[in-house]
Amino acid sequence: MTTTDSTAAGRLSEETILAYRRDGVVRIQNIITAAEAARFREAAAAAGGNATDNSRGSAIFNQYVNVWRQDDVLRELALHPRLAAAATALAGVPLRIWHDQLLIKPPHNGAATEFHQDAPFWPHAGSRHALSAWVALIDVPVERGCMTFIPGSQHHKDLLGQGLADRDGLFRAAPDLRWEERLTIPLRAGDCTFHNSYLAHSATPNLTDDPRFAHVTIFIDAETTYTGDSHVVSDGLGLTVGEPLDHELFPTV
């Protein structure tokens, strides 16, 4: 149910765009080169030793938010023109960046990221589309913490946020999803998945001897408005409720 495309030609195929809009997820091979992935992985490892871990104390992963504001190399990745172009083609609307994040699953972390949707956690209203570019900076087979998706689940847009450590949270909110087909997508370094912000997804534990490095850039509809709800990315910025997120932290692409 997924389509693999390559950015070598500079554009996504119509098949890929249609598959994304149907399933809520596609895999893009070589969104960045292997050499770029190695360079960004080195920067990610360094950032992991210096930045603030927003998931401190969690066994699931280490989460570093807005690393593009703190590290010039990772800024290149968050603002990478191939990511922006692919995201815009898939979404079909003008976009801005909501935030980026570095997600590191330590070796043998022993904890899965349980099924959840992203959008219910965000203080957004009026969004026509939002999606995440999840870039593997190291090979991510199933054993290292790759993601599994429930294709089509992006149509559930009225659910409350589900905890990433709650194995049954999504399925209490939407019991029908328990029986839907699941799609697991391992990635090579430099590959990427784009997934809709309402698409249910999870990630396996890292059972290997090496950390799993993934970088995520989240793109939202440029016309999305602010609800005023609390969020670590937008708190304290003086945003106006009911107005678009016009701020340097949320550049258009």
- Biggest sheet character: 7 strands, mixed
In N-to-C order, the SSE pattern is EHEHEHHEEEEEHEEEEE
Number of domains: 1
**Strand content bin:** 15-25%
Major sheet strand order: 1-2-10-7-12-4-3
Output the number of helix runs.
Answer: 5
Globular, elongated, flat, extended or rod-shaped: what is the shape?
globular
CATH C-level label: Mainly Beta
- Which secondary-structure class do the elements indicate? alpha+beta
| Termini Cα gap | 29 Å
Could you give the topology of this structure?
Blueprint: E1 4-6, H1 14-23, E2 25-29, H2 34-50, E3 62-65, H3 72-78, H4 81-91, E4 95-105, E5 113-116, E6 124-125, E7 130-136, E8 147-149, H5 169-173, E9 183-185, E10 192-196, E11 201-203, E12 212-221, E13 225-226
Parallel strand pairs: 1-2
Antiparallel strand pairs: 2-10, 3-4, 4-12, 5-11, 6-13, 7-10, 7-12, 8-9, 8-11
Give a brief description.
The protein is α+β, with helices and mostly antiparallel strands and about 250 residues long.
Would you write up a description of this structure?
This protein is an alpha+beta fold and 253 residues long. It has a single domain, classed as q2cbj1_9rhob like domain (Jelly Rolls, Sandwich), CATH 2.60.120.620. The protein is built from 5 helices and 13 strands. The strands form 3 sheets. It has a 7-stranded mixed beta sheet. A 4-stranded antiparallel beta sheet has the order 5-11-8-9, with no helix packed on it. Strands 6-13 form a two-stranded antiparallel ribbon. The mean pLDDT is 95.
